[in-house]
Design a protein that fits this description.
By secondary structure, the chain is α+β, with helices and mostly antiparallel strands. It contains two helices and eleven strands; from the N terminus they run αβββαββββββββ.
């Protein structure tokens, strides 16, 4: 009897434990995560930028190294007056006057009757029309000229004028070319102008 009572108590106690135990929560199977497929596109590679062809360079302009023509250059030099160097005096035939003195360009040379003592009386406007034969240094005796008769004087303006046999020498502005002698025997500026012989005397014609 005691055994049955004890067994009954155990059974009741088991029932009470079962009733008091929390109901077990149903367990859902874990969700399966489907793999996400990432579409990877190949990187777009830009086409290389076209490079322009190098700019064509113009050929260098050829520079003319030829010395400019000086024939058109303005010059104030007067026929018979060398810019540099010594004047040359020659003897040459001029028209019907025979052999007389000329400069290196063949222009006839004159003497002035008013020049005395190796001094020139032709200055100012006179010296513009009748150009003194200037020289830088001792004059040179050319063909047919006696070098011992050549000399120089210093004019009032400091320039050196060639003389022959003591007479200052000049060219004439109206003589335009070799062989002209428009000034022979001319009365001008108060005196007479004459060509000069190779012996140093005024030509009397």
């Amino acid at each position: 009897m005691k055994y049955k009572t004890l067994l009954g108590a155990v059974f009741v106690f088991a029932l009470m434990l079962a009733a008091c135990a929390p109901a077990a929560a149903p367990t859902n199977p874990p969700a399966t995560i489907e793999p996400t497929t990432v579409v990877t596109e190949p990187p777009v590679t830009e086409s290389p930028v076209a490079t322009e062809s190098p700019v064509a360079t113009e050929s260098p302009v050829a520079t003319d190294t030829t010395t400019a023509d000086t024939s058109s250059a303005d010059t104030t030099s007067t026929v018979g007056v060398p810019v540099t160097g010594e004047a040359t005096v020659n003897a040459a035939d001029v028209g019907s006057y025979g052999t007389v003195l000329v400069n290196s360009d063949g222009m006839p040379l004159y003497v002035f009757s008013l020049d005395t003592g190796g001094t020139s009386a032709c200055t100012g406007d006179c010296a513009t029309e009748w150009t003194p034969l200037a020289s830088q240094g001792s004059p040179v005796a050319g063909d047919g000229v006696d070098a011992s008769l050549l000399g120089t004087i210093t004019r009032d303006d400091g320039t050196m004028q060639v003389t022959y046999n003591g007479h200052p020498l000049y060219t004439f502005a109206d003589d335009t070319g070799a062989g002209d002698a428009a000034g022979q025997g001319m009365e001008d500026n108060g005196g007479t102008w004459n060509l000069v012989t190779a012996t140093g005397e005024p030509l009397q014609q």
